[in-house]
Amino acid sequence: MTEEAYSPGLAGVIAGETAIACVDQGKLLYRGYPIADLAENATFEESAYLLLHGELPNQLQLKGFKDTLDRYRPLRGELIDALRKIPAPVPMMDVLRSMVSYAGHFDPTNGTDSDDLRERATWLTAQIAGIIAARFRLLNGKEPLDAKPGLSHAGQILYQAHGTAPDDLSAKLVDLTLILYAEHDFNASTFAARVICSTMSDLTSAIVGGIGALKGPLHGGANEAAMEMLQQFKSADEARLWIREALAGKGKIMGFGHRVYKNGDHRATILERELRKLAAQKGQGEWMDIYDAIKDPMVNEKKIYPNVDYPCGLTYYLLDLPLDLYTPLFVASRVTGWSAHFIEQAANNRIYRPLSIYTGPAERAVPPIGSR
Ligand code: CMC
Q1: Burial class of residue 247, CB neighbours in 10 A (0-12, 13-18, 19+)
Q2: Which of 19, 348, 11, 339 is nearest to 182 (CA)?
Q3: Are residues 205 and 172 in the same domain?
Q4: CA dist 305 to 5, 21, 56, 260, 308, Å?
Q5: Tens-binned pLDDT, residue by residue, of the chain (372 aa)
Q6: Gap between the Cα atoms of 70 and 155, Å rounded
Q7: Is 364 domain-assigned?
Q8: Same domain flag for 273 and 155
C-alpha cells in the first residue's frame, strides 16, 4: 500500500455503494426524497418504512407496519427483570447496548433473507423504544407501562416514559427529530454496523455495535454534550465569554462541525426553525439568546456550522426530556437506518478489511525470558 492512499479517519475515502441515502453539500436524500420534504410531509414511521423497504408506504402498508411495531412492543418479563438488576448509575446508552444484546436471545423472528431481516428490524425498533421507556420509569421508581396501540412511535416512547398521553407539540417535534436522525449514509455507527454485517454476522450484533459507536460525543452523544454545554450558562453574556475562551484554547464545541457538510447541516436548519417556534411558544426566548451566543461566533468567525445535535439538545430540553434520553432517542430512530444498511450490505457483500501502515519496532528476535 502506498502512503498516498492513506487517509486518517478514512476522510474522503469511498468505502462502498448505497441506494439508501445521499449526503452531499447541497442535499440529504432518503431513497431520493429530500429530507425537508419528508420532514414536512411524512412521519417517522413512513420514513422508517421507506428506508427499510425502498419505497414510501401506501395507507395499507403503513397500517401494517404500525400494527407490526405495536405487536412487537411488549417487553418480555426476562428483559424487565434484567433492567431492574442493572445498577442505577449505569448510563442509559450502556443499558441500551446490553439490553439489545440480551433481547436478541429472545428474538421471535426467523430467517436471514431480506424480508426476514426487515421483520427483525421492525421488532428491534419496537423493542428499543420499549427498553428506553421501561428503564426510564424504573429509574424513577415506577413500573414499566404497557404500550398503547395506535400511538405514533414518538408518542409511544413519550407515553411509556411519562405515563400520560403526550401533547401534540411534543409528539410532533420528537417525531421530527426521529425523521432527521433515521439515516445518514456511511457515518461512523452505520459503517460499524456494515463492517459487522460484512463478516456474515447477525443483525442484532450489528445494532449493538452501532449503539456502541453512536454513544461517543463525536457522534450521537453530541446531543447530550451540546445541552450539557448550554446548561452551564445563566445568560447569553456568560456564553459569549465562554466561547471566546474555548475558541482561543482550540476547544471542540459539541454540536458543531461535520465531516461531510462544510456549509451547514440541512437537518440542523430544519430543526432550528422549529426550535425557535418552540422556545417562543414556551416563553423561553432567553435559551435562544444563549444558543445564538455560541452559534454566531462559530459560524461567522470559524465558519463551523451547527450539526443536527446542536438544536436537538435544546429541543429535547425545552420538551422537558431528561438529558440521558437524548442519545437513546437517536438510537430509537437510527436503528432503522442501520438495519437498512445491514440488509443492503448482506445482499451484496464483500468483507471490509482495510490495510494499515505499520509504525511498530523493526523485526527483532524473541529474547529468552531470563534475559528480558
Ligand atoms: N469545535 C471547534 N472546532 C472544530 C469543531 C468543533 N465542533 N469541529 C471541527 N473543528 C475544527 C477542527 O479542530 C479542525 O481545525 P484545524 O484544521 O485547525 O485542526 C477543523 O475544524 C476541521 O475539523 P476536522 O477535525 O477535520 O473534522 P472531522 O471531520 O475530523 O470531525 C466532527 C468531524 C463532527 C467529529 C467534528 O466536527 C467534531 O468533533 N464536532 C463536535 C462533535 C459533534 O458535534 N458531533 C456530531 C456530529 S454530526 C451528528 C451526529 O453524528 O451525531
Answers
A1: middle
A2: 339
A3: yes
A4: 29, 21, 31, 12, 10
A5: 566 789 999 999 999 999 999 998 778 999 999 999 999 999 999 999 999 999 999 999 999 999 999 999 999 999 999 999 999 999 999 999 999 999 999 999 999 999 999 999 999 999 999 999 999 999 999 999 999 988 999 999 999 989 999 999 999 999 999 999 999 999 999 999 999 999 999 999 999 999 999 999 999 999 999 999 999 999 999 999 999 999 999 889 999 999 999 899 999 999 999 999 999 999 999 999 999 999 999 999 999 999 999 999 999 999 999 999 999 999 999 999 999 999 999 999 999 999 999 999 999 999 999 999
A6: 12
A7: no
A8: no
Q: How many residues does the chain have?
A: 372
Domain check: are 198 and 234 in the same one? no
- Please choose from 259, 298, 333 the residue to mutate so as to test ligand 1's pocket, defined by most ligand atoms within 8 A of CB: 259
- Contact between 175 and 319 under an 8 Å Cβ cutoff? The reply is no
254 lines ligand 1 (CB under 6 A): yes
Would you give the end-to-end CA distance of the chain in angstroms?
34
Domain count, the chain: 2
Catalytic residues: 219, 258, 309
User: Which candidate, 202, 159, 176, 212, places its Cα nearest to that of 315?
Assistant: 176
* Within a domain: 1: no
Residue identifier of the C-alpha nearest atom 35 of ligand 1: 218
Kindly state whether residues 169 and 275 are assigned to the same domain. Answer: no
Name the residue range of residue 310's domain.
Answer: 222-318
Establish if 73 belongs to a structural domain.
yes
Would the CB of 256 count as within 6 Å of ligand 1?
Answer: yes
Classify residue 369: in a domain, yes or no.
no
**What is the CATH classification number for the domain harbouring 137?**
1.10.580.10
Cα separation, 340 vs 275, in Å, equals: 29
